[in-house]
């Protein structure tokens, strides 16, 4: 066996993050993973010891061998490795960084031979409709949603999530739950989805840091709308104050919209709602009940039409 080379000090996490700049740039991520190296995994947000108690129960039900799981924007996180070692072997990992995918394939090919790795852009995924039972996102949506870049990439990604997830499947999103992220995620999964939010336990600290949350959106074979459920007391969050305020405001705003709909207030449909979930029948309205239909895609001109039911037709 050859002589082992002395290891050079690794750059700090902060130094490496500063090299990224734009989290949506493939070239920046290639450089990041090249500097980081294949054996030095980088965990965004929570560690596996903090995640497994909340995550693994969500994967129960179907036989582990048949549960098709996608990990988009996998990077060099060990998340999918831990899930694989817990018995769930049908895992597909994608990332648009060739460096990351090459390193991860090399690291896992012997110990986890059934795990798949593909170079792919998560905003334009090359999978057929309703391919996966679970989509497990750890920081992917957050990386696409840099405030100065707008929500276009996040919108494209969530549209793909809706398309490739099976009926009854779960989108599990590990996120910092910033208000601009939830402001896109909640409406995108409004009709025909059941949403819950979990707070991932943190290690005790004298200085509250940004906390990781888990948003779970389950796809139903219906057009029902539900209020969002949280598994924690909003007033007792021990995280950064601005983060807690943003989360609570986004949560309460969306649930107010959903409550008004459930109480029989005016219904506002977008064309996408009708195509991908709401499936509202505009020819059968309750007497006096108004509906607003908004036409136009994300980032395009939009036109709204209002109608009032007379008991049988618009």
Protein described:
The protein is α/β, with parallel strands linked by helices. It has helices at residues 13-20, 26-36, 48-55, 79-85, 98-108, 140-144, 152-164, 179-188, 241-262, 271-276, and strands at residues 69-72, 91-95, 116-119, 132-138, 165-175, 193-199, 213-219, 229-230, 267-270, 290-295, 303-308. The strands form two sheets. The chain has an eight-stranded mixed beta sheet, sandwiched between helices. The longest helix is centred in the C-terminal third of the chain and has 22 residues, at 241-262. Pfam families: Methyltransf_11 (PF08241). This is Methyltransferase 13. One of its GO terms (molecular function) is S-adenosylmethionine-dependent methyltransferase activity.
Mean pLDDT: 80
- Count every beta strand, where a strand is a DSSP E run of 2 or more residues: 11
- The arrangement of helices and strands along the chain is HHHEHEHEEHHEHEEEHEHEE
Secondary structure: helix percent: 25-40%
Largest sheet: number of strands, sense, barrel closure: 8 strands, mixed
Question: What kind of oligomer do you see?
Answer: single chain
Q: With helices defined by DSSP (H or I, 4 residues minimum), what is the helix count?
A: 10
**C-alpha termini separation:** 80 Å
Shape: globular
* Widest sheet, order of strands: 3-2-1-4-5-7-6-8
Structural class: alpha/beta
Radius of gyration: 21 Å
Q: Detail the poorly predicted runs.
A: 1-17
* Proportion of beta-strand residues: 15-25%
């Amino acid at each position: 066996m050859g002589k082992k080379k002395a290891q050079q000090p690794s750059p700090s996490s902060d130094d490496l993050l500063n090299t990224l700049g734009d989290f949506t740039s493939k070239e920046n991520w290639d450089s990041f993973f090249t500097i980081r190296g294949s054996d030095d995994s980088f965990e965004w947000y929570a560690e596996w010891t903090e995640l497994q108690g909340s995550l693994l129960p969500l994967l129960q039900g179907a036989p582990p061998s048949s549960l098709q799981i996608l990990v988009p924007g996998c990077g060099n996180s060990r998340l999918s490795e831990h899930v694989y070692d817990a018995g769930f072997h049908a895992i597909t990992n994608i990332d648009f960084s060739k460096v990351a995918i090459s390193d991860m394939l090399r690291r896992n090919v012997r110990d986890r031979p059934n795990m798949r790795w593909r170079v792919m852009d998560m905003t334009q995924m090359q999978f057929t409709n309703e391919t996966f039972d679970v989509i497990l996102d750890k920081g992917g949506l957050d990386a696409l949603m840099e405030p100065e870049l707008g929500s276009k990439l996040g919108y494209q990604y969530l549209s793909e999530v809706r398309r490739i997830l099976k009926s009854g499947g779960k989108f599990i999103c590990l996120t910092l739950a910033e208000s601009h992220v939830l402001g896109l995620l909640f409406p995108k999964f409004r009709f025909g989805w059941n949403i819950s939010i979990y707070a991932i336990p943190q290690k005790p600290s004298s200085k509250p840091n940004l906390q990781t949350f888990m948003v779970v959106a389950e796809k139903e074979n219906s057009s029902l709308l539900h209020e969002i459920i949280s598994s924690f007391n909003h007033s007792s969050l021990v995280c950064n104050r601005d983060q807690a305020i943003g989360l609570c405001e986004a949560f309460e705003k969306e649930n107010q919209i959903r409550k008004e709909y459930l109480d029989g207030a005016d219904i506002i449909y977008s064309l996408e709602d009708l195509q991908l979930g709401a499936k509202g029948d505009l020819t059968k309205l309750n007497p006096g009940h108004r509906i607003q239909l908004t036409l136009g895609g994300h980032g395009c001109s939009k036109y709204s039409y209002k109608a009032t039911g007379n008991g049988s037709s618009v």
